[in-house]
Amino acid sequence: MYLVYADEQGQVYDHSSLYGLARSADMIVEIMEDELIPLPEGATLVGLPSTRPIGMDPETGEMKPLPGNVQAVGALLPQGYTRLCLPGYVKTDKDYKLPLFGYSAVVWKDGQFYVTARLSDDPEKWNPLNCDPLELKNQVKTYTSRYPENRLYEHLSNCALGYECLTASNTFLNRWEGAVPVSYSCNAGCFGCISEQPDDSGFVSPQTRMNFRPRVEELVEIMMEHLTTPESIISFGQGCEGEPSTQAKLIIESIREVRRRTDMGYININTNAGLSDHIRGIVDAGLDLMRVSTISALDDHYNAYYKPRGYTLANVEKSLKYAADQGVYTSINYLIFPGVTDREEEVEAMIEFARRSKIKLIQLRNLNIDPESYLELIPKAKGEILGMKQAIEIFQEELPDVVIGSYTHVPPAELARVKVRG
User: What is d(CA 265, CA 186) in angstroms, rounded to the nearest whole number?
Assistant: First the structure.
């Protein structure tokens, strides 16, 4: 498995003799054969500016940086795949921050690219190749013409066509999980927020946050257009907005109105779940699915990343318990990072958190962040680093009733919440 690197123009090469290496947190590590899979369809190879790739001489075992004007290469994985290692590199400019993506180690083996990753879910629905650009463009025109006063459709048209957001695209293609953003404000100051960054953060947000408060009728129009099949999902809480539960009144009114008209499909919220009273109201209005974002079940780690305003991790757990007790199919959006998520203390804490909060699904998501900045932010490791592959296997063994996946699922029939029109 040979080292993969790029020149200054981004042209990718495989090295003729040096083996590729990876990183776990800030340690350079060897790549194990059982950590590798062929580069998945829909993955993208990218150069990592201001880095120098590290390779290993297979005869001596010596690890050494590659000389010349070269840079490390990482793979950006499609949804459904979980990275197991970071690319093996050192930074040549300590102050440079990599763009907010989730980079996975990549090597050349048996005539093709391989990545350190595992398939965690069926990627078919979220494969970008299944989103026809011409059809999408036509559907955007159809819906924005049909609802010319609906600012949400206009906002989502940029998300779909400009940012190529698949959830926003689904809203126009009227399939699977669609987006209905609702909030321009947030009760957290996430270090890696993709829609809003402080001017002095050094990061560039890849998306622009919505800047208006939608009307109930705008929400209802989108929800009614999308909830037309038994397995359709409409979701509050998108990358282009803040925390949706800060607009609980809007959400509650729109859910009630939609459920007065139809019991079709599922209503989901992607949330930090810190506003327990707001979440309680949303659940009581008729929520079906709830996905709660977390990076850790340890307070010091959670607080360092999310910078919660007016809530704690205990509030998050309280919200999850309440929703589960009311029959909502609950999951966590677990932001994973090799060398951190797989720390012994992190694994133990997450297993207990999952048991207490009664979640049904763990959605493994690759954390989009500059590795060095993240590692400087969070507490140092206290126990052994297990490796991502072993950590996931421990979750599967210790939480046999919890699905380990990668995106929102329609609940099994026996767990589906009974919908009542009212």
Answer: 27
Alpha helices per DSSP H over 178-275: 216-226, 248-261
Residue 207's SS3 state is: coil
In 3D space, the residue among 22, 9, 207, 6 whose CA is nearest the CA of residue 99 turns out to be 207
- The SS3 call for residue 173 is helix
Nearest 5 degrees, angle CA 90-CA 96-CA 99? 95
**pTM as predicted:** 0.91
Q: Supply 355's token pair.
A: 């048991």
- Assign residue 299 a region (left: φ > 0; alpha: ψ between -120 and 50; beta: otherwise): alpha
Report d(CA 25, CA 373) in Å as an integer: 11
Tokens at residue 311, please? 């809530």
Q: Measured in whole angstroms, how far is the alpha carbon of residue 209 from the centre of its chain?
A: 17
15, exposed or middle or buried, with CB in 10 Å at 0-12, 13-18, 19+?
Answer: middle
| pLDDT averages per 10-residue partition of the chain, 422 residues | 93 95 95 96 94 95 94 95 97 92 96 97 83 94 97 93 91 94 84 63 63 94 96 90 92 98 96 96 97 97 94 97 97 97 98 97 95 95 96 98 92 63 40
**Integer Cα distance of 349 and 353 in angstroms:** 6
CB 213 within 8 A of CB 337: no
Region of 261 on the Ramachandran plot (φ > 0 left; ψ -120 to 50 alpha; else beta): alpha
Query: For residue 394, what pLDDT is reported?
Result: 98
Tell me how crowded residue 138 is: count the other CB atoms within 10 A of its CB: 11
For residues 103 and 367, give the distance between their C-alpha atoms in angstroms, rounded to a whole number.
Answer: 9
Summarize the chain as % helix, strand, coil (round to 5): 35, 25, 40
Query: Residue 205's pLDDT is what?
Result: 58
